[in-house]
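Schema walk-through. Below, the input block comes first and the output block second. Nothing else is stored per chain. Lengths vary across the set, and this one has 105 residues.
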Amino acid sequence: MGLLKDAGESLLNFSERFLDKTEELAQIARITMEIKKLEHSIKEIYLSIGRFVYDQVMDGKSISNTDDFITGAIATINEHKAKIQEKQNEIENIKQRYESKHHRY
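--- output ---
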């Protein structure tokens, strides 16, 4: 009976670890998708800055780094970059949390 009990406990431990890993990967995947969306948004902002500069030049207007459009775009990019860093830290925290949890087994 001891062998069956040990096998049952091993199977239970494996199942718990499998579910934990699945949950960990799901959380990381969700956050990674959020990061990808922010990175895509940054690329779109870079494109809009380029369009703005092109239009200004074509219209013979001057360009200044204090222009409201440019300062707003830069502020948004910086906000997105800060959010990306927060989300990368969140992923690291998730990994550490699950890693420390598995040291119990």
